[in-house]
UniProtKB/TrEMBL annotation:
<dbReference type="InterPro" id="IPR029052">
    <property type="entry name" value="Metallo-depent_PP-like"/>
</dbReference>
<keyword id="KW-0378">Hydrolase</keyword>
<keyword id="KW-1133">Transmembrane helix</keyword>
<dbReference type="Pfam" id="PF00149">
    <property type="entry name" value="Metallophos"/>
</dbReference>
<dbReference type="InterPro" id="IPR004843">
    <property type="entry name" value="Calcineurin-like_PHP"/>
</dbReference>
<dbReference type="GO" id="GO:0016020">
    <property type="term" value="C:membrane"/>
</dbReference>
<feature type="transmembrane region" description="Helical">
    <location>
        <begin position="6"/>
        <end position="26"/>
    </location>
</feature>
<keyword id="KW-0472">Membrane</keyword>
<keyword id="KW-0812">Transmembrane</keyword>
<keyword id="KW-0479">Metal-binding</keyword>
<feature type="domain" description="Calcineurin-like phosphoesterase">
    <location>
        <begin position="44"/>
        <end position="208"/>
    </location>
</feature>
<dbReference type="GO" id="GO:0046872">
    <property type="term" value="F:metal ion binding"/>
</dbReference>
<protein>
    <submittedName>
        <fullName>Phosphoesterase</fullName>
    </submittedName>
</protein>
<dbReference type="GO" id="GO:0008758">
    <property type="term" value="F:UDP-2,3-diacylglucosamine hydrolase activity"/>
</dbReference>
<dbReference type="InterPro" id="IPR051158">
    <property type="entry name" value="Metallophosphoesterase_sf"/>
</dbReference>
<dbReference type="GO" id="GO:0009245">
    <property type="term" value="P:lipid A biosynthetic process"/>
</dbReference>
């Protein structure tokens, strides 16, 4: 009888453990401080949402939407894989986006899963109809009190262009000294972002390494293999910082371990 009870307790523990690891939303806060941040943009708050796939957080994504709203963002960046190519359900994925555009302006770039569906045009059209700003190898310039900064976005390399070519196209008309924030799905090409002189990069794709080993980091990530270098948090090289979101959902591997779904908050600060 004791063995049976222990077995039941163990199963219940595993179920609760997996549920918490895959549904407990957390907010990770970071500050980007630089002399290049225009004074009029000091305190600007960006909230990053990445790799939703087909994850659900409450009825009609109400928990996710409420959590983002609580952070009081100036802008929301979606860095790809808002859908999952293995379980493509655009209407379900758009539930979250519909709530996010009611909060503030939303900017979006493709992930590899959108490309894998071969329905990029359909996805772009649906997002545009909701008011999302799509950055397909292009930039937009924000202006406050005569000062400017750029939001740059590139598509996924599965679209057939190299990251270098997409960055060149997206930044072609921007002054070299302008502060640039980049939305790019893949973190494994960090050196390319550094070489291009990007100031702040928002990326995802790695799912936090799927399984996070306490004290060591992520176990495996697409494009990086075992014990990947770029899975979560902020990375620095030269003038460039890259924040990698652990993301929200899963794809081929259905569970996260020690790797809670994450919303990223990044505040700009003038040094």
């Amino acid at each position: 009888m004791k063995k049976l009870l222990y077995g039941v307790f163990f199963v219940v523990f595993i179920v609760i453990f997996l549920y918490v690891n895959n549904h407990w939303l957390v907010v990770s806060k970071h500050v980007f401080e630089s002399e290049k941040v225009p004074a009029s943009f000091d305190g600007l708050r960006i909230v990053q949402v990445s790799d939703l796939h087909d994850a659900l957080f409450g009825n009609n994504q109400e928990k996710l939407i409420a959590k983002v709203k609580e952070t009081n963002p100036d802008y929301i960046f979606i860095t790809g894989d808002v859908i999952d190519s293995n379980r493509y359900d655009l209407n379900q994925s758009l539930q979250a986006v519909k709530g996010l555009v009611d909060i503030t302006d939303v900017y979006y770039v493709l992930g590899n899963h959108e490309v894998a569906t071969n329905k990029v045009s359909e996805i772009y059209e649906a997002l545009s109809s909701l008011g999302v700003h799509i950055l397909a190898n292009e930039s937009t310039v924000l202006e406050r009190d005569g000062e400017r900064l750029a939001i740059v976005g590139i598509e996924d390399p599965l679209m057939g262009r190299s990251t270098e070519d997409m960055l060149e196209l997206a930044t072609a008309y921007l002054p070299d000294d302008m502060f640039k924030m980049l939305l790019a799905h893949r973190p494994e090409v960090f050196n390319t972002y550094v070489n291009d002189g990007i100031d702040l990069v928002f990326s995802g794709h790695a799912h936090g390494g799927q399984v996070r080993i306490p004290g060591l980091g992520g176990l495996v990530a697409p494009g990086q293999g075992l014990f990947p270098k770029y899975t979560a948090g902020v990375y620095d090289e030269g003038i460039t910082k890259m924040v990698v979101s652990r993301g929200l959902g899963n794809s081929s591997v259905p569970y996260r371990i020690f790797n809670l779904p994450e919303i990223v908050v990044m505040d700009l600060k003038k040094k």
